[in-house]
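queue> pop job 88
queue> type: inverse folding (structure -> sequence)
queue> payload:
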C-alpha cells in the first residue's frame, strides 16, 4: 500500500508588499505678535555729553583743564597751533588717547587720530558729536 504523504500545512504564498507614499511635511510658520514696551524717558546716551572725573581730566599745555568733549572742542578753538602740535607730534595724539581711554568714545578718538590741524580736529568732533 502506498501511502501518500499529505502536506497538512498549506503552502503559503508570499504577501505582496505595497510601497508607502512619503508625503513631505508642511512647515507652518506661527505668527507671533510682537509687543513693544512704552518708551521710557531717554537719558542722554551720547558719549560726547559724558564728563570724566577731575583726576582723569586732560591738562592742555599752558591752557585749560578739559573734562568733556564739549570742553575739548572749546579748548581746540581757543588754543594755538603750537599747543595743538605739542599734544599731537610727540608720542601719538594725546587728545585721541584721552577721548578713548577716559570718555570711551572710539568714534571721536579715531577721527582725532587722523586730524592734521586743530581746525580739522574741531570739524571731526563736530561731525562725530552731532549733539554738540
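queue> result:
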Amino acid at each position: 500500500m502506498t501511502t501518500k504523504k499529505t502536506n497538512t500545512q498549506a503552502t503559503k504564498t508570499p504577501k505582496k508588499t505595497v510601497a508607502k507614499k512619503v508625503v513631505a511635511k508642511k512647515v507652518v510658520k506661527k505668527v507671533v505678535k510682537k509687543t513693544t514696551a512704552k518708551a521710557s524717558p531717554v537719558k542722554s546716551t551720547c558719549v560726547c555729553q559724558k564728563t570724566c572725573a577731575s583726576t582723569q581730566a586732560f591738562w592742555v599745555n599752558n591752557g585749560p583743564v578739559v573734562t568733556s568733549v564739549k570742553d575739548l572742542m572749546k579748548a581746540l578753538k581757543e588754543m594755538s597751533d603750537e599747543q595743538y602740535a605739542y599734544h599731537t607730534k610727540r608720542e601719538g595724539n594725546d587728545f585721541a588717547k584721552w577721548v578713548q581711554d577716559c570718555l570711551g568714545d572710539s568714534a571721536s578718538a579715531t577721527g582725532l587720530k587722523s586730524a592734521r590741524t586743530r581746525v580739522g580736529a574741531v570739524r571731526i568732533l563736530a561731525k562725530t558729536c552731532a549733539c554738540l
